[in-house]
Amino acid sequence: MHQLFDEVIGTPPPTAIDSRTLVRRDRRMRATLWSTLGATATAAGLAAVVLTTGAGPAGTPPVGAPPTGTSSTADNRLQLRSATREEAQITAGRLEAALDAAVRAAVPSARWDPQGFDLEVFDEASLLGWTGSAAVANGGVAGSVHVLLHGYPTSLNLDPLTCATLAAVPGRKADGHRGENPASATPCVDARTASGRPVVTYTVDTAIVERVEVRIGLADNRVLTVTSGGDEKTPALTLDQLVRIAQEATDRIR
User: Residue 237 in contact with residue 145, Cβ under 8 Å?
Assistant: First the structure.
């Protein structure tokens, strides 16, 4: 059968196809294909890297940028400067304006002297400070508000300002005053402003005078003392009103 089939179809003609050439061509095509695929993959990888490390989607801050939605509020409060007497004199004028605004904001119902505070520079233990007063009428009582602002040596720790830290100041009695008789010393009471800042308060009540006083700590180991007196043993301002003045002052002075 196989012989008959060979006789029918005859001898096949010699092929014109070179098998070796086909193999070499196939190898070249495969090499070219893999090279192209590799280059495409590399380009895609580079594109992915660029997209990952670039600016990112719209609205996304670059790496290292501060978080969005945050803002730094500048401290516009009056900075007390008293390196020299001339500098302290310049500060006194600005301090008067800050105190005038503070007392009017704290006790708007009172009638304040239009001239406001009149401050002068003074020395205490070689530290320059400021002192002065302003006339006020409140609730039918005429009186004044006196302020004293001075610094303590940095060797003393008055932060936070409390009755205990004041009592530890050398040369002062338990009430924080200098040279008073301990038997009749004014009681010192720790308190806080509405915002939580510590203050110390005093109420002086003698046969001839009644006076209320508040002290609050400021920067650079400074202390602001606010005192109110009045006619016929009645202070023009209450202790609570002085505490509000102390808070308003620290909102304007640092």
Answer: yes
pLDDT tens-digit readout, 217-240: 998 889 999 999 877 678 899 999
Quick check: pTM over 0.85?
no
Long-range contacts of range 183-192, CB-CB < 8 Å, 24 or more positions apart? 188/163, 189/163, 190/162, 190/163, 191/243
Q: How far is the C-alpha of 35 from the C-alpha of 41, rounded, in Å?
A: 10
| CB within 8 Å of 212: residues ≥ 6 apart | 201, 202, 203, 204, 227, 228, 235, 237, 238, 239, 242
With a CB cutoff of 8 Å and minimum separation 6, the contacts of 208 are 233
Please measure the distance between the N-terminal and C-terminal CA atoms of the chain and give it in whole angstroms: 119
Higher pLDDT: 187 or 125? It is: 187
Rounded CA-CA distance 184/150 in Å is 25
Q: Do 199 and 215 contact (CB within 8 A), yes or no?
A: yes
Omega within 30 of 0 (cis) for the link into 160: yes
Q: What is the model's pLDDT at position 184?
A: 53
CA distance 182 to 64: 61
Evaluate whether 193 touches 216 at the Cβ level (below 8 Å).
Answer: yes
Which tens digit of pLDDT belongs to each residue from 89-137?
999 999 999 999 999 999 999 999 999 999 999 886 568 999 999 999 9
